[in-house]
Write a structure and sequence with these properties.
heterodimer; A: 158 residues; mainly alpha; globular; DUF6691 (chain A)
C-alpha cells in the first residue's frame, strides 16, 4: 500500500511539473532572470503548491497517524546552520547555471535522455557522495582509488 | 563552458497554478498517506539506503513514468536544455552535493518546508533563490550568449 501511494504521488508530482512547464529549464531560468526576461510562472506554481500542501499539513495535524504507518515523523524546524546555508548556496549555483533541480531533472529524463542523463548522473553522484560522507565515510585517496576501480570494472564488464 | 542561450517563454499563470495545485496534492498525499515528505533530493538521495527504499523507488518510478507517458502521448513540453556536457555535469554535481548538505531542494524546502513554516526551510529557500537569480544575472550579463 505504501508503495502504491508513493507511486501515485510521484506520478502526480511529475504531471504537475509537466502541466506547469517547470520541467523546461527555460521557464525556470526566465523566472530567475528578474531583471530582464522575467517570467513569474514559477511563483504561481509555488503558490498553488503551498495552498494545497498547507491544507494537507493542517489536516494531518488532526490525525494521530498517516493512512499507512504508525505515526508522523518529527521534522526539523530550526537548526539554521552553516551546513544548511552553504548547501543551499551550492544548490543555487547549480540551479542557476542550467535551470534544473532534482524533480524536473527526473521528469525531463525521458524527454531529452542524452543531455538530462549527464545532469542526473552527476546529481546522483553528488547526492550519494555527500550522504556517504555523512555516515562517516572518508573521501581519502584509498576510497577514491577503490571507487574508480569499481567504476572501470563495471564499464569493462558492460 | 558554453552557457545556455536565453529562450523567451510566455507567462502562463493558469497552467502554472494548475500544475502547482497538482504538486501540492502530491505532497499532501504522500504526507497524509504514508507520513513522508515529498522532497525529491531526499527521496533520490535516500535510494542508497536499504531501509525505505521501496516507497522511494516507487515515487521516482512515478516521476519518470510521468515524463515517459507525456512523451508517448506527444503532450510533453519542449525541454530547452542547452549547455556543454562539462557544464551539465558540473551543475548536476553542485545540485546533488548542495541539496544533500542543505537537506532539501525546491520541493522539500520550497514546497513542504514553507507549507509548515519551518524557519530553516524559509532561510534555505531564500538563499537558493537569491543565489540562483544572481548566477542567472551574471551569466546573462557576461556569458556572451
Amino acid at each position: 500500500m505504501r508503495v502504491v501511494i508513493a507511486f501515485a504521488s510521484g506520478l502526480l508530482f511529475g504531471a504537475g511539473l509537466l502541466v506547469s512547464h517547470m520541467a523546461d529549464p527555460a521557464k525556470v531560468l526566465n523566472f530567475l532572470d528578474v531583471a530582464r526576461r522575467w517570467d513569474p510562472s514559477l511563483a504561481f506554481v509555488m503558490g498553488g503548491g503551498l495552498i494545497v500542501t498547507s491544507l494537507a499539513f493542517a489536516l494531518a495535524r488532526r490525525r494521530a497517524r498517516p493512512l499507512v504507518g504508525s505515526g508522523f515523523p518529527v521534522l526539523p524546524r530550526h537548526g539554521i546552520t552553516m551546513r544548511l546555508t552553504a548547501g543551499a548556496s551550492l544548490f543555487g549555483v547549480g540551479w542557476g547555471l542550467i535551470g534544473l533541480c532534482p524533480g524536473p531533472a527526473l521528469v525531463a529524463l525521458p524527454l531529452d535522455p542524452a543531455r538530462v542523463a549527464v545532469f542526473v548522473i552527476a546529481m546522483l553522484a553528488g547526492l550519494w557522495g555527500a550522504r556517504l560522507e555523512q555516515y562517516g565515510f572518508k573521501w581519502n585517496r584509498a576510497a577514491i582509488h577503490k571507487a574508480m576501480k569499481l567504476l572501470t570494472q563495471t564499464k569493462s564488464r558492460a | 563552458m558554453l552557457l545556455p542561450p536565453p529562450v523567451p517563454t510566455p507567462f502562463t499563470p493558469v497552467l502554472a497554478l494548475a500544475g502547482g495545485l497538482m504538486i501540492g496534492a502530491s505532497a499532501g498525499l504522500l504526507w497524509i498517506g504514508i507520513g513522508r515528505i515529498a522532497g525529491i533530493s531526499g527521496i533520490a538521495g535516500g535510494l542508497i539506503e536499504r531501509a525505505e527504499r521501496d516507497w522511494r523507488l516507487a515515487f521516482v518510478f512515478g516521476l519518470l513514468l510521468a515524463g515517459l507517458f507525456a512523451r508517448m502521448l506527444g503532450i510533453a513540453p519542449t525541454i530547452h536544455l542547452s549547455g556543454s556536457v562539462p557544464l551539465l555535469a558540473f551543475a548536476g554535481l553542485l545540485v546533488g552535493c548542495g541539496t544533500a548538505l542543505g537537506g532539501g531542494c525546491t520541493s522539500g524546502h520550497g514546497i513542504c518546508g514553507l507549507s509548515r513554516a519551518a524557519p530553516r526551510s524559509i532561510v534555505a529557500t531564500l538563499v537558493f533563490m537569491v543565489v540562483a537569480a544572481t548566477v542567472v544575472f551574471f551569466t546573462r550579463t557576461f556569458g556572451g550568449s
